[in-house]
Amino acid sequence: MINENIDLKGRNFLKLQDFSSEEIRYLLDLSHYLKKAKYEKTEVRHLEKKNIALIFEKASTRTRCAFEIGAADQGANTTYLGPTGSHLGKKETVRDTARVLGAMYDGIEYRGFGQKIVEELGKYSGVPVWNGLTDEFHPTQILADFLTVEEQFGKLSGIKFVFIGDGRGNMANSLLIGAAKMGLDFRLICPNELRPKNTLIKLTEKLAKQSGAKIQITDNVNKGAKGAEVIYTDVWVSMGEDESVWQSRVDLLKPFQVNTKVMKLASKKAIFMHCLPAFHNCETIVGKKIKETFKLNSMEVTEEVFESSQSIVFEQAENRVHTIKAVMVATLGD
């Protein structure tokens, strides 16, 4: 049931730290509601005649499609500004771009590099700004992940949720915060060299005390994955990182690949999740290069796990539409 006392109108959605557990709960409940309405063809449009700017300094499949479909379902118009589609940070400051777009549009999405950029857009645009991904955080993805978990298990609180991989990336950062706020039993399994920043760990521990969440960070795969209900991983090298880091990252993370051995450590009812794209075979240009360079047929997850009945990555991907739509409706809707 949606809490009608929660009002997010006019708010930016830049990182989960900015939202209380009750507000995150509201966004998830709204996502459930909007998804059901879409399937039942009873959806009410709350964004009629709104205009939304989509800034993409990094390419995307799921994020772009989710914003465009969500906006269209709700009656809004979108303008896509790709990597060469604006002067942001090149010929025009972020502050100036924010004020120009804020005067023309009702809402702005940004997917790119530094968190400071999306924060500055949010500060100066005068309209709601939504973070589609930065190097530090990926909050819209976490909403989709949590919606998916709730659909599978009927709850979030107490769920044994494991993330295996780079502990410093935007997914690990955002999952840590989200899990701490929503009361999960969260285990981050990563090499000690790739642990999250201490400031983030301290914040997470503080939030966990308030929600009753359990947070564990370990480099022991056997210990961390035992009894897990969710096994989650992400690419080993993030978009935009230089190729020079590949060798060291592969060397560090090879022991942290999600394979059948890891899945057998988890609960029998465990699900596998990935925010995509995934390097699970050699059927892409990058996959072929990985095989040639590192003699690996897969990286963060094997083909066997990715294509298994435990994998719900495509259900998870679809949920980007419903959670992103909920964010836009909650912050911009009539």
The SS-based structural class is alpha/beta
Strand content: 5-15%
Residue runs with pLDDT of under 50 for 5 or more positions? none
In oligomeric terms, what are we looking at?
Answer: single chain
Q: What is Rg?
A: 19 Å
For the record, give the distance between the C-alpha atoms at the N and C termini, rounded to a whole number: 20 Å
**Roughly what is the average pLDDT, rounded to an integer?**
95
Strand order of the largest sheet: 7-6-5-8-9
Shape: globular
Order of helices and strands: HEHEHEHEHEHEHEHEHHEHHH
| Number of continuous helical runs | 13
> What's the β-strand tally?
9
Helix content: 40-55%
Main sheet record: 5 strands, parallel
What do you see in this structure?
It contains 13 helices and 9 strands. It has 334 residues and is of the alpha/beta class. Strands 7-6-5-8-9 form a 5-stranded parallel beta sheet. Strands 2-1-3-4 form a 4-stranded parallel beta sheet, with helices on both faces. α6 (170-182) packs parallel to α7 (198-211).
